[in-house]
Amino acid sequence: MPASQDQVPAIALLGECMIELREEQDGRFSRGYGGDVLNTAVYLSRLLGPAGTVRFVSVMGDDPFSDDMIASWESEGIVCDAVGRKRDSVPGLYLVQTDKTGERHFRYWRSAAPARELLTPEWRRCLDAAEQSSWFYVSGITLAILDETGRKELANYLSDAKLRGAAIVFDGNYRPVLWQNADTARTAHEQFWRLSTIALPGAEDEHNLFDDAGAHATVERLTSYGIEEIVVKQGTGPVVVRDGGETAEIAVPEIRGALDTTAAGDSFNAGYLADRMRGIAPQDAVTKGMALAGRVVQHRGAIIDTGHMQDLMETGA
User: Fold this and answer.
1) pLDDT over threshold 80, residue 232
2) N or C terminus: fewer CB in 10 A for the chain?
3) Is residue 200 a contact partner of residue 269, using CB atoms and an 8 Å limit?
4) Residue 305 three-state SS
């Protein structure tokens, strides 16, 4: 295993959660919440149950929407002692429109979101609450919402955690609209890939940002950074896994009736990490990731009802 052998492993996931408005077929909007790291935290908490501690690290507002979101996360078993509350502020908001193929399109209003201040001295106590975790998880969106100083502070924080024996998990999740330019994004992503012990990239993101020719090219590039455990997602294409010097392709089962790809990658990551935190080998852990992602895309929204994945929670493998 890449992290210390805690009896009950603890993972801290650092990121943002926003209010979600989803356009329905009749033109009306439904309200929920979402954010890539938070999505992974919810699914991971459901899958691990008492076998692990899942902690979300962020800064929210002091508004009723933030109250509702935090209460919802706590009901999912997520530990929220590392969630700060900024006075007189509200979280970011995004709107989702889904086309006939199930592909989603986003519009964001997040420039003043309090999560952007997570790495400032005022909110350092949020990181302190997560310091003893044996696993840490961040995404490219986590990096994108921080300024250059914040990314430097986060890199130092994770570097110290890695020296203590923690596993550092990074999902590239590149969204060009969130970055000043591609060069800044490339520099930041490469820095955090080099910090990582587990890489969970998407092939399309890595092609768009690093011009990788395909999943195997991504594996080779990330291997050159010293990462030993790499899992490249390719949508409906095979998952490419690199572990212990060996590379394998694992076919994704056919999914019938896909409605919405929102949180497909986030839920895959949760399924994969849940099994890895239980000590299951990478190639076998991919199966849980694919099973959960396949379930999620058959329902609308980032977070599906627990009942739609109860069997995956009960098996624990």
Assistant:
1) yes
2) C
3) yes
4) coil
- Using the Cα atoms of residue 113, residue 118, residue 122 and residue 128 in order, give the sign of their dihedral: positive
> Hey, what are 299's tokens?
């329902």
What's the one-letter identity of residue 186?
Answer: R
d(CA 168, CA 161): 8
* 134, two tokens: 């044996």
Point out the residues that are catalytic: 266
Domains of the chain: 10-311 (3.40.1190.20)
Cα–Cα distance measured from residue 310 to residue 148, given in angstroms and rounded to the nearest whole number: 41
**165 Rama class: left (phi>0) / alpha (psi -120 to 50) / beta:** left
Task: Output the pLDDT for position 105.
Answer: 80
Whole-number pLDDT of residue 4: 44
In three state form, how does the secondary structure of 240-302 look? EEEECCEEEEECCCCCCCCCCCCCHHHHHHHHHHHHHHCCCCHHHHHHHHHHHHHHHCCCCCC
pLDDT in tens, 136-195: 999 999 999 999 999 999 999 999 999 999 999 999 999 998 999 999 999 999 999 999
Distance from C-alpha of 215 to C-alpha of 202, rounded to nearest angstrom: 8
Query: What percentage of the chain reaches a pLDDT higher than 90?
Result: 79
- Give the strand order in the sheet containing 93-98: 29-34, 18-23, 93-98, 104-109
